[in-house]
Amino acid sequence: MPLKPIFDKAPLTVMPAQPLRAGLVRSDNATMVKLYALTADVNEPIRLEGAFRLACIVTAKPGEEPVAAKIRALLSTQNEDGSFAMSFEDSIALLRAAWALYEYEARKPLLDHMARWCAYAAKNWDALMADDAIWAYSADLLELLENLYRVTGKAAVLNLCERAVTQTMGWSSVLNTVSSQRPTSKDVTREE
């Protein structure tokens, strides 16, 4: 059951730190309601996750909103081999939107779609690596795989995650390296 709006007293960034699931806290902030109204015509997979997460914040029943229906409709177009008839980045964006929907509903069929795509990705990893989009969306893929592994505990997901880290980019090592290479004790000019 959704709680009363609390975001007037606490910033949105506090929500993940609290033990709250999507849809448990709502806001009646006028700006957010207007922003959600703009998402009514969302059709691109890249915008579905944000639109659904916004629906969780401003509506009482986000699972019944049109954006949730669009996510389900796109998931129903999954091929038998687990792939989608869309680009890699759109597939990842759709699966992330499906994860957002799973966080709200906790229904197993949503996990089945993600698991079938992971099986497809494992079989066709070389073809996915040839696509330049995996370099741009590797962090999104890793976050999705990590979330999926936390829920399922499947070793195959962990194996796919290891492939993504070793063959695309280890984000944790990049972030640690960048901070140690830049001096923080002196001002660095824009040219430097």
Average pLDDT confidence is 78
Characterize the overall form. Answer: globular
The major β-sheet equals: none
Helix/strand order, N-terminal first: HHHHHHHHHH
Low-confidence stretches: 1-11, 174-183
Helix content: 55-70%
**How far do the termini sit from each other?**
53 Å
Helix tally equals: 10
What is the total tally of β strands? 0
Structural class: mainly alpha
Sheet-strand content, in percent, reads: under 5%
Radius of gyration: 19 Å
Overview of the molecule:
The structure is a single chain. The protein contains 10 helices and no strands. The relative contact order is 0.09. It has 192 residues and is an all-alpha fold. It is globular and about 45 Å long. Mean pLDDT is 78; it is low at 1-11 and 174-183.
Secondary structure: elements and pairs:
Layout: H1 30-38, H2 45-58, H3 66-75, H4 88-105, H5 108-123, H6 125-130, H7 133-136, H8 138-152, H9 155-167, H10 171-181
Helix pairs in contact: 1-2, 2-3, 2-4, 3-4, 4-5, 4-8, 8-9
Which properties best describe this structure?
192 residues, mainly alpha, single chain, disordered N terminus, 10 helices
Could you write a compact summary of the structure shown?
With 192 residues, the protein is mostly helical.
